[in-house]
Design a protein that fits this description.
The chain has one helix and eleven strands; from the N terminus they run H-E-E-E-E-E-E-E-E-E-E-E. By secondary structure, it is mainly beta. The strands form two sheets. Strands 1, 2, 3, 4, 6, 7, 9 and 10 form an eight-stranded antiparallel beta sheet that branches. A three-stranded antiparallel beta sheet has the order 8-5-11, with no helix packed on it. A hairpin with a 4-residue loop joins strand 6 and strand 7.
Length: 168
């Protein structure tokens, strides 16, 4: 009968001796990094006119403006520019850019045109190569889908564009 007590005592002593050792495992991953984005420049298509057939005006991520259809580009007003976003994130972080397929822009006259975001200086996914305090400059362009001159009469069209930068 004394043998089970001895086994129990040995087991308790072994348990106590193991509980004093520090068990090491892989360290926890770093605290999630926030992606910080600031808008530095707005997408601007410049001045143009639309004829009877409608068409498109495109500004790519380099700021090059092109058109299709019955559109005449004018060299009036402010400069043609792609949107510019400064993205602050740790180097080596994969960032995905996402947004709806198109955005509705309203004119002073109540008419609508549609904007498609479709040109990225980095592509829709990029890996940050800058230090966390240095911005990754992302240029984004788009295309305006224009109806004829009656559907889209002259005026100022504006709207809110929601673009999301997700850390992967």
């Amino acid at each position: 009968m004394k043998q089970p007590k001895n086994l129990l005592l040995i087991f308790v002593l072994l348990l106590i001796s193991f509980s004093g050792n520090v068990v090491k495992a892989q360290e926890l991953p770093p605290i999630p990094v926030d992606v910080q984005v600031s808008t530095e420049q707005f997408l601007n298509f410049g001045a143009f006119t639309v004829g009877d057939a409608g068409g498109t005006v495109n500004v790519d991520h380099t700021g090059t403006r092109t058109w299709t259809g019955d559109v005449t580009l004018l060299n009036l007003g402010g400069p043609v520019t792609p949107a510019l976003f400064d993205v602050y994130v740790n180097p080596g972080t994969l960032v995905t850019i996402s947004h709806p397929a198109s955005f509705e822009l309203l004119g002073d006259n109540g008419n609508k045109i549609y904007l498609e975001v479709n040109s990225y200086s980095t592509g829709q996914n990029f890996i940050s190569t800058s230090a966390a305090e240095v911005p990754n400059s992302i240029y984004i362009g788009g295309t305006l889908q224009l109806g004829n001159s009656q559907a889209n009469p002259p005026g100022k069209y504006s709207g809110t564009i929601t673009i999301t930068f997700n850390q992967q």
